[in-house]
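Q: what sequence does this backbone want?
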């Protein structure tokens, strides 16, 4: 029995001691295999590039969300004139720059969508005042031509006039004056900044105020306080106020109302 166990042990030890056989792949075969794999990769890339080049032009979808009918038509007309490539290769930044070139556009977002194609979403500028008779201006002082000419010279808006480059300054001045004169029930109806930096302001009650560019804010603030106190009872008799003086101002009275008051 012991001899049998020893013989089995010897057989197992001999089997474990024998070296394992390995299959040797010739170097030439390895090289050919690598060349084949690289060739397939290059072929796939070439076919993919050709597929992209030969792909039909991408569809441009203009969203009408947040746009009026005139704004949508304006944007749609511009996008129809664009020469775009395929879905993947179209230059979205170029389309965005073209869209932002429309004066009435405030913000734009362009994205790729599998179902609709290249989607263009635009938000229009929100006008808060007229700028002259041919333009509008938003709260940031940006002057623009609206998509619909019927939006020009709206009666509910005040009218700003001056150099276009000064539009933000004029807008800021109007907003400040409205804040000061709101407790008096007065609001700016027209405001003009001349090339000599002289301000002419007409309020909705008919009062006109002219002021120079020296201590402008302080003069207008002081006048609002006087109109709310010392001149409160005679406010309706005043036709215009000239603040272009260093130590005072002049008042032009409405002759008819002053005579009736006397």
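A:
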């Amino acid at each position: 029995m012991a001899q049998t166990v020893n013989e089995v042990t010897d057989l197992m030890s001999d089997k474990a001691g024998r070296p394992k056989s390995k299959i040797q792949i010739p170097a030439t075969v390895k090289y050919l295999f690598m060349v084949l794999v690289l060739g397939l990769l290059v072929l796939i890339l070439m076919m993919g590039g050709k597929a992209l080049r030969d792909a039909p032009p991408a569809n441009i979808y203009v969203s009408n969300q947040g746009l009026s009918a005139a704004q949508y038509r304006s944007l749609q007309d511009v996008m129809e004139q664009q020469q775009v490539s395929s879905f993947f290769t179209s230059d979205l930044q170029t389309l965005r720059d073209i869209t932002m070139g429309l004066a009435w556009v405030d913000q734009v977002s362009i994205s790729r969508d599998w179902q609709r194609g290249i989607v263009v979403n635009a938000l229009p500028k929100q006008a808060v005042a007229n700028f002259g008779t041919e333009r509008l201006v938003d709260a940031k002082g940006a002057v623009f031509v609206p998509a619909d000419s019927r939006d020009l010279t709206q009666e509910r808006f005040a009218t700003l006039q001056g150099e276009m480059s000064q539009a933000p300054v004029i807008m800021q001045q109007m907003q400040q004056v409205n804040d000061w004169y709101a407790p008096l029930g007065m609001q700016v109806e027209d405001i003009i900044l001349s090339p000599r930096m002289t301000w002419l302001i007409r309020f909705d009650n008919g009062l006109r105020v002219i002021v120079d560019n020296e201590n402008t804010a302080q003069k207008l603030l002081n006048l609002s306080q006087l109109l709310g106190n010392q001149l409160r009872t005679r406010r309706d008799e005043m036709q215009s106020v000239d603040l272009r003086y260093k130590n005072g101002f002049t008042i032009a009275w409405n002759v008819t109302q002053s005579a009736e008051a006397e």
